[in-house]
Write a structure and sequence with these properties.
It is a single chain. By secondary structure, the chain is of the alpha/beta class. 23% of the residues lie in helices and 38% in strands. The strands form 2 sheets. Strands 1, 2, 3, 6, 7 and 8 form a 6-stranded mixed beta sheet that branches. Strands 4-5 form a two-stranded antiparallel sheet. β1 and β2 (18-23) form a beta hairpin. It starts with a strand and ends in a 5-residue tail after the last strand. The model has no long low-confidence stretch (mean pLDDT 97).
Length: 149
């Protein structure tokens, strides 16, 4: 699994001009599932992201996690994170999981965040979405389970 994690002051996602998910301060997570991923990767990634110390403490040092701050998380599926741009000009998405595998793992990831006590909003899996966010910092990280296992 791959995730682009952004610290935000607010974020939202719309489908057909209707807001389907919105948060205040917290994390915006774009989540990509590969053909090789399973529940173990989803659980690990959720725990890793929930515990990332990327929020400032009272001395302005990045010492707090989204759990410490009471922040929220918006999770949006993003199969294009598995796009391979090494050859040619059209990305290859051969490593991205198809919807029948990716959606259940996406939901496992969301459930794992909720089990940690986080308020989680989501986009609509597989839909054409418009995502809006205000990146705070800016702070943007790439977290990849391939580097952990």
């Amino acid at each position: 699994m791959r995730a682009v994690v952004q610290r935000v002051s607010r974020a939202s996602v719309e489908v057909e001009e209707a807001t389907v998910g919105a948060i205040g301060p917290g994390l915006m997570v774009l989540l990509g599932v590969s053909r090789d991923d399973g529940p173990k990767e989803a659980a690990w990634l959720a725990g890793k992201i929930a515990g990332l110390r990327i929020f400032p403490d009272n001395q302005d040092k990045l010492n707090l996690s989204v759990m410490d701050t009471g922040g929220e998380v918006l999770v949006v599926s993003q199969f294009t994170l598995w796009g391979d741009c090494a050859k040619g000009r059209r990305p290859s998405f051969g490593r991205a999981a198809g919807g029948e595998k990716a959606e259940p793992l996406y939901l496992v990831f969301v459930d794992e965040l909720k089990k940690l006590g986080l308020n989680v909003a989501t986009g609509s899996f597989g839909a054409m979405m418009e995502v809006s966010l205000v990146n705070s910092g800016p702070v943007t990280l790439l977290v990849d389970t391939e580097k952990a296992f």
